[in-house]
């Protein structure tokens, strides 16, 4: 790193921090040094910056808790069984079933744990579908331009104006989804369009930058330029959008299952809440079966809260000055200069 790259605060330029500096210089860097720098920029520094912010720390730990509950928890906690206890047993009335039971004597707490994998699968499917398609279309349309741009943006605009909820209801009625991954994909069917248009507008500006021109002059292909020169600049927005997409899919799925619009093909929090409303009359008589409705609602609130905090903390993770402060590579480079 040259003296021109050093800022007055001892940090580095935004291009240097995000790995989008001169393409020729990076091409001449030894592979081992380049790998070390990539680890510092994309792994070590984000972790250090993220851990220093309470929102990212709490949100990340919360997300990790739900992931463990949906993977390890289902192996540790036994599956809920009929007649584990009296019907509609309240919480803390029997410490062998501390969370209470439903209308057929099944533990409500066990149901929450064993419903978590389906929720995580729907969230993951929503992220993969919405973010994957939005990033692909947005980057290609913005970088290529011309006829490809117009064609892709025409399709994007069609999905933007389509009403999301009615479209989801129609699709679910014609082809009832039975797999959580399919449910998540359907719920995100038009969520990609807004992201694609936003990314496209940013790529239109980034493709004119000097480092992109240098990469083109070196003869690098379009996929290489997009992945190495443009994607790092868009990573903050994409990751924040991924957290938002997961939250939207989870909330939408619970709401549609609770209302009975989606078929009850797998255990999840929305199905539990629907049964609590219909079989336990939990809304009109919360003292009788309110715990059956409250526990999955609490699990839903905790997961969405963790995702929201995590997405807010990502702004700090991708702040160039904070990344420079925590970057070991930048410090080493500065210390090695005469």
Strand segment count: 0
Could you name the CATH homologous superfamily? MetI-like
Largest sheet: none
Distance between the termini: 12 Å
As a percent range, the share of strand residues is under 5%
Q: Over all CA atoms, what is the radius of gyration?
A: 24 Å
Mean pLDDT: 83
The CATH class is identified as Mainly Alpha
Please give the count of helices.
16
* H and E string: HHHHHHHHHHHHHHHH
User: Which structural class matches the secondary elements?
Assistant: mainly alpha
Structural notes for this entry:
- The protein is mostly helical and 338 residues long.
- The chain has one domain (79-316): MetI-like fold (Orthogonal Bundle).
- The chain contains 16 helices and no strands.
- It has helices at 14-17, 23-27, 31-51, 54-71, 73-76, 108-144, 146-161, 164-174, 180-187, 192-206, 210-217, 222-258, 269-278, 286-317, 320-326, 328-335.
- Helix 6 packs antiparallel against helix 7 (146-161), helix 6 (108-144) packs parallel to helix 10 and helix 12 runs parallel beside helix 13 (269-278).
- The protein is globular and about 75 Å long.
- Mean pLDDT is 83; it is low at 1-22 and 333-338.
Secondary structure elements and their pairing?
Elements: H1 14-17, H2 23-27, H3 31-51, H4 54-71, H5 73-76, H6 108-144, H7 146-161, H8 164-174, H9 180-187, H10 192-206, H11 210-217, H12 222-258, H13 269-278, H14 286-317, H15 320-326, H16 328-335
Helix pairs in contact: 3-14, 3-15, 4-6, 4-14, 6-7, 6-9, 6-10, 6-12, 7-10, 10-12, 11-12, 12-13, 12-14, 13-14
Biased composition (Basic and acidic residues): 12-21
Protein name: ABC transporter permease
GO biological process, one term: transmembrane transport
């Amino acid at each position: 790193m040259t003296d021109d790259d050093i800022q007055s605060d001892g940090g580095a330029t935004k291009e240097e921090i995000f790995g989008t500096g001169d393409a020729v210089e990076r091409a001449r860097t030894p592979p081992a040094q380049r790998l070390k720098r990539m680890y510092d920029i994309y792994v070590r520094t984000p972790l250090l910056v993220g851990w220093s912010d309470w929102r990212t720390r709490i949100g990340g730990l919360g997300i990790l808790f739900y992931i463990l509950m949906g993977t390890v928890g289902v192996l540790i906690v036994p599956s809920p069984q009929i007649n584990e206890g009296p019907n509609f047993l309240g919480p803390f009335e029997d410490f062998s079933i501390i969370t209470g039971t439903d209308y057929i004597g099944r533990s409500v707490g066990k149901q929450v744990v064993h419903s978590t994998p389906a929720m995580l699968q729907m969230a993951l499917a929503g992220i993969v579908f919405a973010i994957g398609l939005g990033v692909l279309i947005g980057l290609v349309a913005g970088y290529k331009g011309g006829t490809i741009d117009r064609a892709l943006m025409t399709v994007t605009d069609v999905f933007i104006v389509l009403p999301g909820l009615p479209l989801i209801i129609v699709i679910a009625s014609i082809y009832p989804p039975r797999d959580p991954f399919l449910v998540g994909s359907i719920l995100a069917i038009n969520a990609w369009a807004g992201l694609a248009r936003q990314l496209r507008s940013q790529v239109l500006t980034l493709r004119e930058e000097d480092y992109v021109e240098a990469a083109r002059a070196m003869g690098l292909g379009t996929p290489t330029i997009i992945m190495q020169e443009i994607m790092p600049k868009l990573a903050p927005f994409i990751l924040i959008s991924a957290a938002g997409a997961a939250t939207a899919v989870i909330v939408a799925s619970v709401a549609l299952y609770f209302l009975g619009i989606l078929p009850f093909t797998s255990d999840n929090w929305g199905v539990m809440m629907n049964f609590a409303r219909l079989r336990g009359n939990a809304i009109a008589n919360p003292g009788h079966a309110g715990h059956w409705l409250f526990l999955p609602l609490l699990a839903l609130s905790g997961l969405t809260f963790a995702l929201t905090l995590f997405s807010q903390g990502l702004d700090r993770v991708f702040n160039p000055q904070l990344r420079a402060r925590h970057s070991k590579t930048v410090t080493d480079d500065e210390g090695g200069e005469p």
